[in-house]
Write a structure and sequence with these properties.
The chain is built from 7 helices and 9 strands; from the N terminus they run βαββαββαβαβαβαβα. With about 200 residues, it is of the alpha/beta class. The protein is globular. Pathway: Cofactor biosynthesis; biotin biosynthesis; biotin from 7,8-diaminononanoate: step 1/2.
């Protein structure tokens, strides 16, 4: 299985979700474009219970910003054609950057990586006032592109009515709800991995 983890925005919980999926499937991990420090790949490696295979990013930048901005700060341009899918016989979790329409350059967006490789999407939704609108706009774009979506991972303090209306209008299934945890540790990741592994 190859899943592309994306979200309705930045700091939504993609990296924690990716670690949970890696743990559940004992999968390999790849983040095509990384901006800023610490690297998300390092966080995933620290949170799983086994020596995960991490593939090198196609692009890495120092500035913690949108990929197109981070690249520009180093006088570089991200080329979608130069992003190539790692070859593995194992399951692979691919983590996007920010939300689905975060720009890679003046033409391409993060979601174009998933479209290029025909990857199944897992959409991370962090629960806050305004998340319904942001989620359904993201859903509309995924549907417009006819992308395959495995389901939604909710992240944060439960809001049953927000969750219900998002699932109702999207037609997607809920895969997991990550509660607001005081600290994310490998044991917490293992707990959620147990909950989701039979759905994947």
């Amino acid at each position: 299985m190859r899943y592309f983890v994306t979200a309705i925005g930045t700091d939504s919980g993609k990296t924690i979700t990716s670690a949970i999926l890696v743990e559940a499937l004992k999968a390999d991990y790849w983040k095509p474009v990384q901006s800023g420090y610490p690297r998300d790949s390092e966080t995933v490696a620290d949170l799983v219970s086994f020596p995960v295979k991490i593939f090198p990013s196609s692009y890495e930048f120092a500035k913690p910003a949108s990929p197109h901005d981070s690249a520009k700060a180093e006088n570089k341009i991200i080329e979608l054609a130069k992003i190539t899918l790692p070859q593995t016989d194992n399951h692979l979790i691919i983590e996007g950057a920010g939300g689905i329409l975060v720009p890679l350059n003046d033409q391409d967006f993060v979601i174009d990586i998933a479209q290029k490789f025909d990857l199944e999407i897992i959409l991370v939704v962090n629960l806050y006032l305004g998340c319904i609108n942001h989620t359904l706009l993201s859903v509309r774009e995924l549907q417009r592109r006819n992308l395959k979506v495995k389901g939604i991972v909710f992240n944060g303090v439960s809001n049953p009515e927000s969750e219900r209306i998002i699932l109702h209008h999207s037609g997607y299934q809920e895969l997991l709800h990550i509660e607001k945890e005081a600290l994310i540790t490998p044991l917490i990741v293992q707990k959620y991995a147990e909950k989701i592994k039979n759905i994947l």
